[in-house]
TrEMBL record:
InterPro entries: Methyltransf_25, SAM-dependent_MTases_sf. GO terms for molecular function: methyltransferase activity. GO terms for biological process: methylation. This is Class I SAM-dependent methyltransferase. Its EC number is 2.1.1.-. Keywords: Methyltransferase, Transferase. Signal peptide: none annotated. It is an enzyme of class 2 (transferase). It comes from Kitasatospora misakiensis. Residues 61-159 form the Methyltransferase domain.
Length: 288
């Protein structure tokens, strides 16, 4: 049984509160997540290229799970007007400080503390684009349908949702030593439950919990919530391999540019979309 259900309180409520505290405590470490090593820098580039397909100057963008502002500044560079949101007040403070330091603060129209499960403060058809990177939908737990439907609801006609979720198979691939350790320590019943449900709350004592997805699950979930899938991508593929090779490639501008082109193509391939730590997708409201 998942924690938090014995007294009738939805486990997702307690879990989301724990996630808020986690990111409050995580603070500035989140700023470094996509920059501290070469694999993170590749992942940032894949995310950036994916969203840039849909950016146009003057768009009003709702950024969900904005964190310390790495993609807030990308949106500002493309002439967007941005409503910045995050579940963590501490992350919002860091966002303001970092975006201001980057000279991008004039692009920000407002900041709000926001739980992705409840976007009711925003009217229907309010935004040209919604960006939900960092996997906020993976923190909605049992209420992912409610959360996803809410993100689609606030899109204007023709508007685009660009989002990421944590990847089940890609995370298993990237963190195989840790997954094996869990099986040895807690038994295969625990790892079987995680693989079956994608829910890390089955792991005793796990601090950073989330719900992981497969691409196949997203192809079912998104239409069920009123969306139409436009594109998908893994967050990383070859860049999950030997980091020493990547460091050598990064030192050569020509090789680096070529590698990023290959990596972008590989991540977008249908056969690779489950292979990264996150799955990226673009969707719009269905016509039905």
């Amino acid at each position: 049984m998942l924690a938090g259900t014995a007294d009738g309180t939805p486990s997702s409520d307690r879990s989301v509160d724990a996630i808020r505290r986690y990111y409050d405590d995580f603070a500035e470490q989140e700023q470094d997540r996509l920059a501290k090593d070469v694999a993170g820098r590749v992942s940032f580039e894949i995310h950036r290229r994916f969203v840039e397909r849909y950016l146009k100057e003057g768009q009003l963008v709702l950024e969900v799970g904005a964190g310390p502002g790495r993609f807030t500044t990308v949106l500002a560079e493309h002439g967007a007007r941005i409503v910045v949101t995050d579940i963590s007040p501490v992350q919002l403070q860091l966002n303001e400080a970092n975006v201001t330091a980057a000279g991008a603060e004039p692009a920000v129209e407002a900041r709000h503390t926001l739980d992705v499960r409840d976007t009711s403060r925003f009217p229907d058809a309010s935004f040209d684009l919604v960006l939900a990177y960092g996997g906020p939908l993976s923190y909605a737990f049992e209420q992912e349908r409610q959360a996803l439907a809410g993100l689609l609801r606030v899109l204007k006609p023709g508007g685009i949702l660009v989002a990421s979720v944590m990847s089940l198979w890609g995370s298993w691939r990237a963190r195989l030593p840790g997954a094996t350790h869990l099986a040895i320590r807690y038994g295969t019943d625990v790892t079987d439950a995680v693989i079956r449900t994608g829910d890390l709350r089955h792991v005793p004592g796990m601090v950073h919990v989330c719900r992981m997805f497969t691409w196949e699950q997203l192809t079912i979930l998104i239409p069920e919530c009123g969306g139409e899938i436009l594109a998908g991508s893994a967050s990383n593929w070859a860049s999950l391999e030997d980091p020493t090779v990547l460091e050598k490639i990064e030192d050569d501008p020509e090789l680096w540019a070529r590698f990023l082109a290959y990596e972008t193509a590989a991540c977008s391939s249908l056969g690779s979309r489950d292979g990264g730590t996150h799955i990226l997708f673009a969707a719009r409201r269905g016509k039905g």
